Amino acid sequence: MKTAIIMGSTSDLSKVEPAVEILKKYGVEVQVRCLSAHRAHLGLSEFVEECNQNGTEVIITAAGMAAALPGVVASQTVLPVIGVPLSGSVLDGMDALMSIVQMPSGIPVATVAINGSKNAAYLALQIMAVKHEEIQKQLLAERKGMEEAAMKANEEVVAKFQ
Questions:
Q1: Which of 29, 72, 144, 162 to pair with 58, CA 20 to 30 A apart?
Q2: What is the spatial distance between Cα 12 and Cα 19, in angstroms, rounded to a whole number?
Q3: How far is residue 32's CA from residue 49's CA, in Å, rounded to a whole number?
Q4: Which helix (H) or strand (E) holds 5?
Q5: Domain boundaries, the chain
């Protein structure tokens, strides 16, 4: 079970670390790289080719502003690519969001919320759960825990206002 996370700049590291933690908690091997689509395109292409050959199942990409990274990666692989638009410009991530969701037909990038690396990790896990039953079981158990916590919170609200 292997994923890759690629960010465009080291300034993005704090925004992708939550995804790394979630994936590792589920026992997934995570390769993390900082490879700009604009400044390190040859290194990026080499790493994507490595992912194509080494058993990587999903690639998460995180980029801000023009956010070319997810589309460039998706153009070089048929592995599922998840784009995380990052805030950081005067447009506060809307520029990156619009860039990532507007991929040309045939080169899709699944897109999560601005700064949504946690959901990118969970989406990657759901994709891998199709093949890996142990991930599916862990996800279902975590969802059950979420439901129990939500129902407990509801009971506390009801008790407070009765």
A1: 144
A2: 12
A3: 15
A4: strand 2-7
A5: 2-131, 136-162
Question: Is CATH 3.40.605.10 the right assignment for the domain spanning 2-131?
Answer: no
Contact criterion met (CB below 8 Å) for 58 and 3: yes
CA distances from 122 to 12, 104, 105, 156, 157 (A): 19, 25, 25, 28, 29
Using alpha carbons, select from 73, 76, 77, 94 the residue that is nearest to residue 85: 94
Place of tokens 């784009």: 83
Query: Residue 158: beta bridge partners?
Result: none
Average pLDDT over residues 21-29: 98
Q: How far apart are CA 75 and CA 85, in angstroms?
A: 18
pTM > 0.70: yes or no: yes
Query: CB neighbours of 110 closer than 8 A, spacing ≥ 6?
Result: 80, 81, 82, 83, 123
Closest CA to 85 of 75, 76, 71, 77: 71
